[in-house]
Amino acid sequence: MPMRCKFCERSAFIKLHYPKMYLCEEHFTEYFERKVKRTIERYKMLRPDERVLVVVSGGKDSAVTAHVLKKLGYDIECLHINLGIGEYSEKSEEYAKRQCEALGVPLHVVRVKELLGKGIGEVRTRRPTCSYCGLTKRYIFNKFAYDNGFDAVATGHNLDDEASFIFSNLMHWNTQYLAKQGPVTPGEFNGKLVKKVKPLYELTEREVVAYALANGIEYHIEECPHAVGATTIEYKEILNEMEEKRPGTKMNFVKGYLRKKHLFEAELERAELRECRVCGMPSSGEVCSFCRFWRLEEPLELMIKQR
After folding, report:
1. Is 279 annotated among the ligand-binding residues?
2. At which positions is Zn(2+) 2 bound (predicted)?
């Protein structure tokens, strides 16, 4: 016998494991959007009058983030960072363009290869590719948001991402990372570090995929070629097994971390921030890690060009 939606007699579209219930497409969409709204309110992420820059990769999480924020009435624009990873990046950019056209929101594209001379994976360095890719993306979206007067940057990190990140950093006792993680990173240093928010913080990857499917959102399903073998994927698999046996494990783990986060903050030695000698953005040293890695001698220009 087919399962029925908890709120109506239609066939169930999804079985939620935590909380345990069956929902049709319509009621699942309502549940998902209500949960995003509550997450934004609970963690005081955004005010209705703020300009929000949504960083879209072409994948499901950021596409769903943009879709729901627009539906909830926020003033959003999107930024896609083309990483210069061959065909993978070209496809990602195409998906990002289609997603933003469907939403009717402006999309700004920054291409790493044009901006810095080399794409991700083309730099000769001992540093792991994912490490300097993360550094590059964070710097670009923060500086773009600052240069163009956005009040907040929204990313598509979901509950699975957060749980695996916390788990990974606990395994290695990276207390500095654990002290800074969370649903909201407040703006600092005269606004040069723009506030960062994660509206999907309490929704699982499975729920995000289901929302995209229920709402006809197309997205790039390929994994980045540099992510193959990443330990975070292994940690996600371990947490998925635990969730299967005990639904609610991920949520309880993340909420437990938020309750105890102050223990890590107490250990964090706050480095005195200063302006980077090259770009003027916040730095713990004379030159920020981005300018140092890319050997820049003058700041990047990321102002939106008026059409």
Report:
1. yes
2. 276, 279, 288, 291
**Separation CA 190–CA 73 (nearest Å):** 28
Closest Cα to residue 300, out of 193, 155, 146, 125?
146
Which residues on adjacent β-strands are paired with residue 197?
Answer: 154, 184
Whole-number CA gyration radius for the chain: 20
∠ CA 94-113-127, nearest 5°, is 110
For residues 205 and 20, the answer to whether their CB atoms sit within 8 Å is: no
User: Can you give the pLDDT at residue 180?
Assistant: 87
Task: With beta carbons less than 8 A apart as the criterion, state whether 130 and 223 touch.
Answer: no
Q: Closest Cα to residue 145, out of 181, 100, 197, 67? A: 197
108 is an annotated ligand-binding site residue? no
- Give me the pLDDT at residue 234, please: 87
**Residue 78 assigned to a binding site:** no
| DSSP collapsed to 3 states, 237-286 | HHHHHHHHHCCCHHHHHHHHHHHHHHHHHHHCCCCCCEECCCCCCEECCC
Rounded to the nearest integer, the mean pLDDT of the chain is 94
Is the separation of the CB atoms in 153 and 55 below 8 Å? Answer: yes
Q: Integer distance in angstroms from the first to the last C-alpha of the chain?
A: 58
Distance between CA atoms of residues 185 and 77, nearest Å:
19
CA angle, corner 46, sides to 96 and 59, nearest 5?
Answer: 20
Could you say which architecture CATH assigns to the domain 33-294?
Answer: 3-Layer(aba) Sandwich (3.40)
* Local confidence band at 285 (pLDDT 50, 70, 90 cut-offs): very high
Q: Is position 276 annotated in a ligand binding site?
A: yes
Let me know: does 68 contact 32? Beta carbons within 8 Å: yes
Looking only at the bridges linking them, the beta strands covering 51-55 and 75-82 are: parallel
* Mean pLDDT in residue range 199-226: 96
CB 177, CB 164: distance < 8 Å: no
3-state secondary structure at position 27: helix
Structure tokens given for 280: 């003027």
Residue ranges covered by each domain of the chain: 33-294
